[in-house]
From TrEMBL:
It comes from Pseudooceanicola atlanticus. This is L-carnitine dehydrogenase. Its EC number is 1.1.1.108. The keyword Transferase does not apply. SUPFAM superfamilies: 6-phosphogluconate dehydrogenase C-terminal domain-like, NAD(P)-binding Rossmann-fold domains, Thioesterase/thiol ester dehydrase-isomerase. GO terms for cellular component: cytoplasm.
Amino acid sequence: MTRVVAIIGGGVIGAGWAARFLLNGWDVRVFDPEPAAQDRVREVINRARLALPGLGEVALPEEGDLSFPRLMSEAVRDADWVQESVPERIELKQTLYRAIQGHMAEGAILASSTSGFTPSELQAQSARPDQIIVAHPFNPVYLLPLVEIVASQANPSALVERAQDILSELGMAPLKIRGEVPAHIADRLLEAVWREALWLVKDGVASTSEVDDAIRLGFGLRWAQMGLFETYRIAGGEGGMAHFLQQFGPALQWPWSKLTDVPTMDDSLVQTIASQSDAQSGDLTIAELEAQRDKNLVAVIRALGWQDWGAGKVQNEVDATRLDGAGVPVRFNDIIDLGAPVRTINRAVPLDWLDYNGHMTEARYLDVFGNATDRMMTLVGCDRAYIENGQSFFTVETHIRHLDEVRAGAPIRVETRVISGGGKKMHLWHELRSDDRLLATAEHMLLHVDLETRRSAQMPAMLEERLKSLAEAQGKLPPPDGLARAIGDPA
């Protein structure tokens, strides 16, 4: 049964939550009395449709339904999760909770996006404090995986665990904060850097663009994949963190920082920062900057995924849980019908696969077909453990036909047939489709090889048996259009 989330507040964060839930199969109800809220939410969701489905290697669940109830009570009624993202005023949030908790299911989770308030503060005037927790995300909510979970003693552990499980299913990385502290963890760290940056600009030491360059071209790249402590552990050399602290710990006593001082936001400083920031972005509008930000984040997270590291590792783990729901078999015994083409890829076109024509570049067609071949290899038994044991398949010939174009965000899938298999050869046929359109076909001939001698070798009985069973069952289908008569043999 489809689950329901109510989003209270359709600003940047609320709209991001709506996109995250909606694209992961939840029905989403958004309540915001502001007239422009619906358009804003739809704009964010449209942006997310381009970026989020292509973040991983597996298709997302079928999209849920989006609605905008006129009454807040209608939005929260029977919802499994209520996400509050209204302005940071404690009286407003407490008043809101009193108004909606009477209409919510008692077992539902009421989560606040607050970046500063603690759960105890939020729960202070509630008749049911046990269902109120903090779930603080990061913008854009539909792409960044981190969400800080903060609970109080009033929250049952079962509810907190259920919240973490739900957020993990949404492709997020819930970080359970050990105790209640204003601004949680991440924003306290950001605040420290932000204060120093403001002083550097106010004191004329750096411009806004120079501060940003120092971050994005330097330690920001390190932080994206290792964080603070692990970065400094490496800086300590073979002695690790202990050596680093011994060598550089005394520097913390030097009068470098202005962390305890806040520059006065007078008109002069505001105008200086605003004018420099506007000039830094050139002619790019906020919407254009948001689109570029999404492209950059997708590229970074996907690159980390290739290394199975950081935010990329989170996405890989999510992908692994979604294969079955995407109709992609994980094991040979998961193939329901041996006589039908096997779905080996089901995903969306990511933003970093586009060429100068705005569609998927030809190199990515080969990439998709290569991944489809890898999936078939795994299904018949040539998995990571098999390869580490010294045998694998090498592709010796590939024929690709490009038949149609496809753009970012479009769903794509590959259906694979085994034309023949056994002895030393595996002959595959792939068809790449988007909805009902045939985009491309590929024919691959592979040789089974011994990785020590780097020469072809007879495949073991299990692989041969599985390949032959697929070839025999699928051989009853009509021959694929475009199949080479004798691939692997001289023309």
